[in-house]
Amino acid sequence: MTAATGPAFPAGFVWGAASAAYQIEGAAREDGRGPSIWDTFSRTPGRVASGHTGDVACDHYHRHADDVALMRSLGLAAYRFSVAWPRIQPDGSGPVNPRGLDFYDRLVDSLLAAGIDPYVTLYHWDLPQALEDRGGWTARDTAYRFADYAAAVHARLGDRVRTWTTLNEPWVAAFLGYGSGVHAPGRTDAGDAFRAAHHLLLAHGLGARALREAGARELALTLNLSPAVGDPAAAERVDLLLNRQFLDPALCGEMPEDLLKIIDRHAGLDHLRDGDLTLIHQPIDLLGINYYCPQYVADAPGTPADPAWPGSEDISFVHPGGPSTAMGWPIDPAGLTALLTRLSRDYPSVGLLITENGAAFDDDAPSGGRVADPDRVAYLDSHLRAAHAALAEGVDLRGYLVWSILDNFEWAEGYHKRFGIVHVDFTTQRRVPKDSALWYRDLVTTGVIPGVTSG
After folding, report:
1. CB–CB of 123/85 below 8 Å?
2. Is 356 among the catalytic positions?
3. Is residue 7 part of a domain?
4. Which of 82, 198, 366, 378 lies 20 to 30 A from 279 at CA?
5. Mean pLDDT of the chain, nearest integer
6. Burial level of 240, CB count in 10 A (0-12/13-18/19+)?
7. In this model, does residue 291 exceed pLDDT 90?
8. Does 96 fall in a domain?
9. pTM strictly above 0.90
10. Which among 25, 169, 356, 410 is annotated as catalytic?
């Protein structure tokens, strides 16, 4: 049983959960869907743990009605999901595949019937392979193709969907996909990573403009953001590479001079054109924040740059010690308060929404219809208290979407890392709400952080 023991959140605060298309949908070859870079990457030997792929994933494509019913039983007010670009335009451009849009029609209608607001993310890393073959995010044209795709999805769903997010975590798409190569498409070139980052930002701006012109009511951009903690000079540079590289162009129409020097050294500046910052700096209503932990850094003269962090020469990324998740990420809820208050101070023109926060732990298999996950409950409790502390300081935080609703395909980790508040047996596809899901249901119901007691 639970007892309400924590602080209360304001009326109207949005409670929900999140997912991503390639991680849960499956049906990789059905109804005209084309291949994405993640299909190619995951089917390449050695790229994903145990050779896992998203071909089936959580089979959400066929089970979405049951999954929506599950969300309703947890009292969720919002569900953030992504649209698979290869379902809509199998070749990345040209005619729209109506069967792909039909699926999202059904999903949106099911959500609305259950009293759940659909929050659509248009790009969560599954670039059509045909576009990658033409240069992917290193090609400027991909940004324009994204704007066309955004307009096509809005034309079908815009009458029922209020909140539209252009991109999810462009830093990850650019620097893990094109820099370190640990994510799709698996390229390893620092210059390509910076070019991809710029073209992703351009895609955001062009897509936001197309959505606004089509009548979209609420626009968002979602970034993975972390405080950089450690030696001041190292922390400032990592903040520049991770946070300000995306925040300043999108929210201020500016590119930091120190960042331009780093980009020039690795990629040149020919891909940056006059007028790009104006295109990128489109008015948005919400900044989506994906927070997991800070980046801890130290001065380390002579250390080469991490491949995922071109420009991080002479910096060491360190672990501070203490508790970690199954991903090896430090557990630091205070970092969330610090991040939210900093964003509120430095970028006051936009409302904030936590679009991902959660943790992978090595959960036990269901026993007696129950999955005990006390570490995840403690993680969510501490981070929600941190979010509430930011609210108490006047931060314009609109809601919290837990990552994730279901255990799913965790990218290069395959099915080995479980972030879900609902356990998924990937053989039978049986869903079992974990204790964290029931704890979250109580929070959603009361708006008060519940404490877990015995009994």
Report:
1. yes
2. yes
3. no
4. 82
5. 97
6. middle
7. yes
8. yes
9. yes
10. 356
